[in-house]
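Hi support team,

I submitted a single chain yesterday and got back a structure, but I'm not sure I'm reading the token output correctly. Could someone confirm the output below corresponds to the sequence I sent? I've pasted both exactly as they appear in my results page.

Thanks,
R.
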Amino acid sequence: EHFVYYTTAQQGLLGRVRKDGTFFWASVVIDPIYENGELVGFAKITRDITERRAAQERADAERRKLEAEATERRRAAEAEAAAARKAEEQRQAAARAEQQRIEAEAAAARGKKAKAEAEERARVAREQEQQRQQQAEQQALERRAQAEQEAAALEQTAAVVTAAPVPQAAH
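Hi R., thanks for writing in. Yes, this is the structure output for that exact sequence:
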């Protein structure tokens, strides 16, 4: 009986030079050939993958760029939210100071009419403060939601770019 068989191939990615002297990236597969249990030679298949490798590198670079943009937008949104919180804290401190001033004025006022007027001003100031606070909170939430949507869109675009099929080189 005469048997010729192949065992597991050795595979690698190599830089090669064509007969005309130009460089190309190649995928090389080398298989040992055995005849009746004895190694009699090797079979080698070399494929030019220069275009596929270049396309993959472009896709990787685009993915990294999109991920960096998404990260930067997320950081900007977080910084904006922090600035909005700080502004809100300052506004609340100013509102407390104003409220204390109104309360002191009411305490110093003479008569029921002056006291009633001061209490009414404090009530109105509190309502206005609550309205401003609610508006500021709503605006901060909207800005954050918008930034998160933009970051998610960029991440989805990065995933699409990464998952895009890479063109196969001609053999």
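A quick pointer for reading it: The first strand starts at residue 4 and ends at 6. Let us know if anything else looks off.

Best,
Support desk
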